[in-house]
Design goal:
heterodimer; A: mainly beta; four-stranded antiparallel beta sheet; 5 helices; 37% strand; B: alpha+beta; OB fold (Dihydrolipoamide Acetyltransferase, E2P); 2 domains; five-stranded mixed barrel; 34% strand
Chain lengths: 632, 286
């Protein structure tokens, strides 16, 4: 799959040093270009609203929008937060732990991710932990158009210590929605259930949830649990919601998938506290198929387990995957039934310990997986400012064939830390591995940032897409660092030029073209009577002196664009690069003469040039690293 | 917040030709709905105070901004107040959302604004917009200079007890069996503070010792709450003369009526601020 990884801290907040941990993500099903990411991020102005990160271009760039009710001057904007878009209408729902307060929950509704209005409070009550909201809209039948949300929560007001609960709202877009709290624990507990209660909603009205039923507690906060899955077959609107799945052993509602899951609540791995992790995903094409991930301690190591049911939760597989020393599992299933599994794993020991963020996909229930490491960063820097260090959860969703996710990690700008590549909006110097303030100069301390990732099956435009004179651009066309413009490229009213756009003598400006103070004008720039000049420039701070190296000669010839740099073809010729000098002729025999061709060469090239595939992979990795280096 | 005094070197903005009243717009007419919705219906202090020139209406400098008639592109002529992460905006175009609209192209205005969107650029929500005048701008500059002192006085004024002291012991607050197990457990502690000086004791005798509750937890929920260790010397601003605020604090911490709680960063300050605090409080009394 093609994977993009993007640091979501906006450029205008390049000086940010907060511990932006515990991220979650929501994608607007009606408009996948609109995405919301949440994290423990403070309001830069100390205002009374907590912020969320919003993208309106599919994750390519992000803004911070303070519209979540909170407390003024809070170091972090809000406590636990998880949002979810409705299926239609673009409304955003969410649950938070409100500040000030102690376990005070708010359930919220907003008109959209970018709305300036403070989200409306639909519910406000105390003694609740870890609200986790999923939402959808009814797509057929008498209730068509109704928004529905399901918030898993640990409700300490529940009688008898059966605290696992779900707040159900079946008319969430009504003026005064009705919210009903449903207890989903049917068995005796050790006094309460675990804090993680995770719902999953299918468009056919099937709603699942998974939770830890805490059964016993030993000294030192060691809990032994059942991992329980409950199901409702009709949106949770009947008289006894979430009782459609029972356990054959005791006949009570809630299928016990695993008994005896044990862990110490509050133990730590890699500076991150742990105390149970859960994720659940239902196949959008078949509500009978669902996967869960949970954690417990196995042989002294905190371990993720993944299991599957293909019969609506009645029976369950044995472990399809286990990952030791790992936390924050998150699962999603796309419209082709492909399963994605992301998690964060601690590797190494002592000062050299690192957090690896993995993204795995499988089409055969984990018989084989494609494993990508999205981030491989130090686990000991920066020092934790609070817990959670990277999050009690990270999060991923699927929409169509694509997977969208977010994780939090050390933000050192180092290409080696992000094997699949990474894009920063905030000012960063990858050559010196330093973050830079808004002035592009002042160093900024390393901190924990949220990183958005998107994995696409068939991207409509890849970084290597070549446009011809027949290519038609719309307002939604997304140009990447690699977009290659030719003399035939036609710009429209909607084309948005950035500070990195290179203009040639063929560039055609319209009356809508907007110049910034960083726009490099040439003798070919053609101003019209509509060109607007102002003594004010847009607020686009300098990024540290990247010089695309524009020259008239280059403008007249062919060129190759990679990230923020434009290269003359000869600059990337393999036979001009010492490291490839000896191999240049070999690759030329199969038509690969330049670095940018090598980095995207098909694995089949290995056989064509008589090379072991492992060796070829290594060479491509080296080529990729060199190209990135040259681009900086 | 970065407060910047108006610079004499800045080219004076053109005077507005608008004939509307020069009085500052009242909160009820100038604050967009967006700002007053939600539970906190008071208008917070504006972190941005700018002199701007209106460049375009129904336009924005960022793609993410939903545009309507109250969306303006403005050029910042002068920054009177900004936040540290952003700094001086003079010379930049930014987006300003001012729902009542009614701003005239080319005119200069004094704007109080809150943050809205931070991206490649920034978009602000105006809470107050008045036609530019030298007098209004000077009044703002003076109030900004006074602001830090006013903030300290405000907290001190509502505190029941302002005192310096040394933490001499700390003990864990015992939990009941039914206490929830949660990652957000505040881990309440009771610290006994030996009072060294009493700066203000509103409505009560000057104590020799006080007991304060604080959250020892390193959880995100309690990151703002002050934490103390045995031997620490601090300036404490304890309790609240407003009964409802005091009750709310006790509800959170579970403190008894004769105990105090440290919940906000201003409740326990470094001992080094004591001399400055005394000067500020004495100045206020005079």
């Amino acid at each position: 799959m093609n994977i993009d990884v993007i640091n979501v801290i906006p450029n205008s907040l390049s000086g940010e040093t907060g511990q932006d941990s515990e991220p979650s993500i929501s994608v607007n099903p009606e408009n996948p270009l609109e995405i919301v990411v949440t994290a423990f991020t403070g309001n830069p102005t100390g205002g009374a609203n907590a912020p969320i990160f919003v993208s309106t271009n599919g994750g390519a760039s992000w803004v911070l929008n303070a519209n979540v009710p909170s407390e003024a001057n809070a170091f972090i904007g809000t406590g636990d937060i998880k949002t979810a878009f409705a299926g239609t209408g673009g409304r955003l729902y969410g649950g938070i732990l409100r500040r000030p307060g102690n376990l005070r929950m708010n359930l919220l509704r907003g008109a959209s991710g970018t709305a300036s209005t403070t989200m409306t409070i639909l519910e406000d009550r105390n003694q609740v932990d870890q609200p986790f909201t999923e939402a959808t809209s009814v797509s057929s039948g008498p209730d068509i158009g109704a928004d529905r949300f399901y918030t898993g929560l640990n409700d300490f007001a529940a009688p008898g210590g059966k605290t696992a609960s779900i707040d159900i709202c079946l008319d969430a877009n009504a003026a005064s929605p009705t919210i009903r709290t449903v207890r989903i624990e049917s068995r005796a507990t050790s006094g309460q259930d675990g804090p993680q209660i995770r719902p999953a909603v299918h468009s056919d009205g099937t709603v699942y949830a998974v939770f830890y039923g805490w059964r016993s507690r030993a000294p030192g906060n060691v809990f032994t649990s059942d991992v329980v899955v409950v199901r409702d077959d009709d949106w949770g609107r009947g008289g006894t919601p979430f009782t459609d799945l029972t356990d054959p052993a005791d006949g009570l509602s809630g299928r016990i998938v695993t008994s005896g899951a044990s862990f110490t609540f509050g133990a730590q791995i890699g500076n991150e506290r742990v105390g149970g992790d859960l994720s659940i995903a239902v196949d959008p094409g078949d509500s009978s198929v669902l996967y869960i991930a949970y954690c417990d301690v196995q042989a002294g190591e905190y371990t993720i387990h993944v299991k599957r049911s293909t019969d609506r939760g009645v029976t369950w597989s044995s472990d399809l995957a286990t990952v030791a020393n790992a936390t924050n599992p998150t699962l999603a299933i796309n419209n082709a039934g492909k399963v994605a599994f992301a998690f964060q794993q601690v590797v190494g020991f002592g000062a050299s310990q690192r957090w690896e963020t993995h993204f795995q996909t499988t089409t055969n229930a984990f018989s084989s997986v494609e494993d990508k490491i999205l981030a491989d960063v130090p686990a000991n820097t920066p020092s934790p400012a609070f817990q959670p260090y990277i999050g009690d959860y990270m999060h991923m969703v699927a929409l169509g064939s694509a997977f969208y996710g977010v994780f939090s990690a050390n933000n050192t700008p180092d290409v080696d830390n992000f094997p699949e590549g990474v894009t920063y909006q905030r000012n960063a110097n990858f050559a010196t591995n330093t973050l830079q303030a808004i002035n592009g100069v002042t160093p900024v301390a390393v901190s924990i940032d949220p990183f958005f990732f998107k994995a696409t099956e068939f991207p409509t435009i890849t970084r290597f897409t070549r446009f011809t004179n027949f290519t038609r651009f719309t307002r939604f066309t997304r140009f990447t660092n690699f977009t290659r413009f030719t003399r035939f490229t036609r710009f429209t009213n909607f084309t948005r030029f950035t500070r990195f756009t290179e203009f040639t003598r063929f560039t055609r400006f319209t009356n809508f073209t907007r110049f910034t103070k960083l726009t490099k004008l040439t003798r070919f720039t053609n101003f019209t009577k509509f060109t607007r000049f102002s003594r004010f420039g847009p607020f686009t701070p300098p990024s540290g002196g990247v010089d695309p190296g524009f020259s008239d000669e280059r403008a007249q010839g062919d060129f190759i664009r990679f990230q923020n740099r434009v290269f003359a073809p000869e600059e990337l010729a393999l036979d001009a690069l010492p490291v490839f000098e000896e191999m240049a002729a070999v690759f030329a025999s199969v038509g690969i003469t330049h670095l940018h061709q090598l980095v995207v060469a098909s694995p089949s090239v290995a056989a064509d040039v008589g090379m072991a595939s492992e060796d070829f992979d290594d060479i491509v990795a080296v080529a990729r690293s060199i190209l990135r280096g040259l681009a900086r | 917040m970065n407060k910047k005094k108006a610079s004499k070197k800045t080219q004076p903005p053109r005077k507005s030709k608008k004939k509307s009243s020069k009085k500052k717009a009242s909160a009820s007419t100038s604050v967009p709905e967006a700002v007053v919705e939600g539970p906190d219906d008071s208008v917070e202090e504006a972190p941005f105070i700018l002199v701007v020139q209106v460049l375009a209406q129904g336009a924005a400098t960022m793609d993410e901004v939903p545009i309507d008639g109250g969306t303006f592109v403005v050029g910042v002529v002068e920054t009177l107040a900004s936040i540290e992460a952003i700094g001086d905006l003079a010379g930049f175009e930014i987006t300003l959302q001012y729902s009542p609209a009614g701003l005239e192209l080319g005119e200069n205005y004094l704007v109080h604004a809150q943050s809205w969107l931070y991206g490649d650029g920034i978009a602000l929500l105006a809470t107050s917009v008045t036609p530019y005048s030298d007098a209004d701008t000077q009044a703002v500059v003076e109030s900004l200079e006074e602001a830090p002192r006013a903030a300290v006085l405000s907290r001190a004024a509502e505190a029941e007890l302002v005192a310096s002291g040394k933490v001499i012991s700390i003990k864990e607050v015992s939990k009941s069996e039914n206490e929830p197990v949660t990652e957000h457990d505040p881990q309440w502690r009771e610290a006994v503070v030996e009072i060294e000086s009493v700066e203000r004791a509103a409505g009560r005798s000057k104590p020799e010792q006080v007991t304060v509750r604080f959250a020892a937890s390193d959880d995100a929920e309690w990151v703002d709450a002050p934490k103390v260790s045995v031997g620490d010397r601090r300036v404490f601003m304890l309790g609240n003369a407003r009964k409802e605020k005091a009750a709310a604090s006790r509800a959170i911490s579970g403190a008894s009526p004769d105990e105090y709680s440290l919940l906000e960063s201003g409740d326990a300050l470094p001992i080094e601020v004591l001399d400055d605090l005394r000067k500020v409080m004495q100045g206020d009394e005079q």
